[in-house]
């Protein structure tokens, strides 16, 4: 029964078009089309599975495709973190070979400009791809109620700050308690805190979102947000919310309404 439900969920989330079964990118120049949660990606490029300062995980998902600007962001961030003396980063989902809606777990990651970066690290030499399918990925927030100080450390703060100060970053999503901790403890230049936005979940990874790049006229940008550090009333609202309880897969399948994709996405999906 569970397998049937999962298949139904995938069908719902794909909006009648099975983006998950297309294993290669579409031809043509790279273009992000539509919005982050309702779009697709033409001419996607693949992130190398290993690089200086990072390794891709859960490779069998085939979600390591994105815009060149996204891959460059990841590679540059990884090199910066490596220069700080930190262990290599785990890089999770970027997007599918042609973007579009993906199975349960992601509402965005559709136009090649989102990427998940995990707080967990694996010191030492990169492991074989088969050994990265189910890595240990500990949350740094306990039950969506408080920071776990046995795991969260200044290394994580340095990682978040480094990512937030990167060019092309529109915003990055973190758990609300991580945002609160940063607001409470960061001194000196706090301008980068504006880019760190609280969102549901995100207790074991953060999610970077880049601006629409030049050469993608059909890319739809996200609305701007306040120019302050985000540590005032907006954060207070988040902290007053009860702990997040995510619905079951079955309930998600009942609630979900497929996004309406731009017309150009059908050609991307159907391309040889």
Give the helix/strand layout.
Elements: H1 2-13, E1 31-35, E2 38-42, E3 45-46, E4 50-51, E5 54-56, E6 65-66, H2 68-83, E7 89-91, E8 114-121, E9 141-142, E10 146-147, H3 154-164, E11 169-174, H4 176-185, E12 196-198, E13 205-210, H5 233-240, H6 249-255, H7 264-270
Parallel strand pairs: 5-7, 11-12
Antiparallel strand pairs: 1-2, 3-6, 4-5, 7-8, 8-13, 9-10, 11-13
Helix pairs in contact: 1-6
Q: Could you write a compact summary of the structure shown?
A:
By secondary structure, the protein is an alpha+beta fold. Helix content is 26%, strand content 18%.
Question: If you had to describe this structure to a student in words, what would you say it looks like?
Answer:
This protein has a 7-stranded mixed β-sheet. It has a two-stranded antiparallel sheet with strand order 1-2. It has a two-stranded antiparallel ribbon with strand order 3-6. With 272 residues, it is of the alpha+beta class. The N terminus is likely disordered. It has one domain: 2-Layer Sandwich (Muramoyl-pentapeptide Carboxypeptidase, domain 2). The chain starts with a helix and ends with a helix. The radius of gyration is 18 Å and the shape is globular. It has 7 helices and 13 strands.
């Amino acid at each position: 029964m569970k397998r049937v439900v999962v298949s139904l969920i995938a069908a719902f989330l794909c909006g009648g078009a099975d983006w998950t079964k297309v294993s290669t990118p579409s031809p043509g120049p790279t273009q992000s089309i539509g919005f982050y949660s309702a779009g697709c990606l033409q001419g996607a490029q693949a992130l190398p599975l290993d690089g200086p300062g990072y390794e891709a995980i859960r490779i069998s998902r085939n979600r390591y495709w994105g815009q060149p600007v996204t891959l460059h962001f990841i590679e540059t961030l990884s090199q910066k973190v490596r220069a700080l003396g930190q262990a290599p980063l785990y890089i999770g989902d970027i997007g599918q070979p042609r973007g579009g809606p993906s199975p349960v777990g992601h509402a965005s990651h559709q136009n090649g400009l989102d990427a998940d970066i995990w707080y967990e690290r694996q010191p030492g030499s990169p492991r074989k791809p088969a050994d990265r399918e189910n890595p240990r990925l500990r949350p740094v927030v306990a039950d969506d109620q408080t920071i776990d100080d046995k795991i969260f450390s200044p290394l994580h703060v340095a990682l978040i700050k480094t990512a937030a100060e990167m060019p092309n970053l529109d915003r990055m999503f973190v758990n609300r308690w991580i945002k609160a901790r940063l607001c409470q403890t960061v001194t000196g230049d706090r301008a980068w805190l504006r880019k760190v936005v609280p969102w549901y979940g995100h207790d074991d990874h953060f999610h970077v979102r880049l601006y629409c790049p030049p050469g993608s006229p059909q890319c739809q940008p996200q609305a701007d947000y306040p120019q302050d550090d985000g540590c005032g009333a907006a954060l207070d609202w988040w902290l007053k919310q009860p702990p997040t309880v995510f619905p079951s897969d079955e309930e998600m399948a009942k609630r979900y309404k497929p996004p309406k994709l731009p017309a150009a996405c059908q050609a991307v999906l159907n391309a040889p």
